Amino acid sequence: MSDDLHTISAGGITATIKADGAELCSLKTANDLELLWQAGAAWPRHAPWLFPIVGRLKNDQLHHGGRTYPMTQHGFARDLRFTWLERGAEACVLQLTDNQTTQARYPFAFRLTLSYRITADALDMVVGIANPGAEVLPPSFGAHPAFNWPLLPGEPKDSYRLVFAEPEPAPVRRLTGGLLCERPERSPIEGRVLSLNERLFENDAVILDQPLSRSVRLVGSRGPALDISWDGFRELGIWSKPGGAPFLCIEPWRGFASPLDFDAEFVAKPGIMHIATGAAETLRCRIEIQSSD
Fold first, then answer.
1. Torsion-angle region of residue 247: left (phi > 0), alpha (psi -120 to 50) or beta?
2. Residue 72 has what pLDDT?
3. What is the pLDDT of residue 172?
């Protein structure tokens, strides 16, 4: 059994997870169709976890207790090796805890646990963020799965759409230099439907900072569809690399990038959690595969 990778399966569906970043790196249907972006030249990741920040901080700096710490975009969890706690045929669990390396960038005690479980038609992921320390833990957390776009090779990208569980009339947010723009923008979502095209991402991600939905379907004119649902997450990012990359990221978040004018103590940053000593937060995400007709 490899220490680097672990594959779980049920009902013909398989998922492979890496110890590095606890990252999902493959999700295949029963007929062996790969649904996840395979970390090609356009973007060298598959589905990283974002912790302890989502997005960027101003000047890539975290301020706490009169000191300044370096903190680059999306944090460090995606670049660190997790420890396997459980490895079974249909499920696995990994964990990352604070250490000397993380304390140099994020001066808080934490225990981050990622659980994967596969069923006949879905992959369930449970995130546990616990505070074993003596002060309030102030993290953000985000999922960042990149799905092949198109899901079915050869299909036009413009034939795909996102269908939300609820109408989404609220304005969306955008980024400049990785930071949250001050003014919201009119939503490109019409009712429950966001028609997908490469032009959507010329100005980076589309961010729903107050979505009513807790699920969304990625569907094209042919081939499989994906239902992505979440619990405990409060925002949603939708992103593809500008210029026509062949993947689409559907990203439930708990937190978001710093507003352009925010450069204060990290514990006061908009969007973060405040986890009391001895307490924990649990977040859930599911990818359900809907077979072709």
1. beta
2. 97
3. 98
Q: Fill in the amino acid letter for 136.
A: V
| Residue position matching structure tokens 């999922």 | 143
Beta strands 49-50; 280-290: pairing state: unpaired
Residue 184 and residue 172 in contact, taking contact as beta carbons nearer than 8 Å: yes
Residues 6+ apart with CB under 8 A from 183: none
> What is d(CA 160, CA 250) in angstroms, rounded to the nearest whole number?
13
For residues 78 and 21, the answer to whether their CB atoms sit within 8 Å is yes
d(CA 229, CA 166): 12
Q: Which of 88, 71, 84 lies closest to 22 in space, CA to CA?
A: 84
CB-based contact 229:286 (threshold 8 Å): yes
pLDDT score recorded for residue 2 = 80
What is the phi/psi pair of residue 212, to 5°? Answer: -85, -30
C-alpha–C-alpha distance, residues 272 and 256, integer Å: 8
Rg of the chain on CA atoms, in Å:
19
Whether the bond into 52 is cis, omega within 30 of 0: yes
Cis peptide before 167 (omega within 30 of 0): no
Hey, what amino acid is at 270?
P
- Mean pLDDT in consecutive groups of 10 residues from the start of the chain, 293 residues: 92 96 97 96 97 98 97 98 98 98 98 96 97 98 98 96 98 96 96 97 95 98 96 98 95 97 96 98 97 66
Q: ∠ at Cα 87 (84, 91), nearest 5°?
A: 115
What DSSP character marks residue 102? H
Give pTM, 2 decimals: 0.96
Distance CA 43, CA 248 (A): 11
Determine if the peptide bond prior to 211 is cis (ω within 30°).
no
Cα(40)–Cα(124) distance, rounded to whole angstroms?
A: 25
- Show the tokens assigned to 115: 């659980």
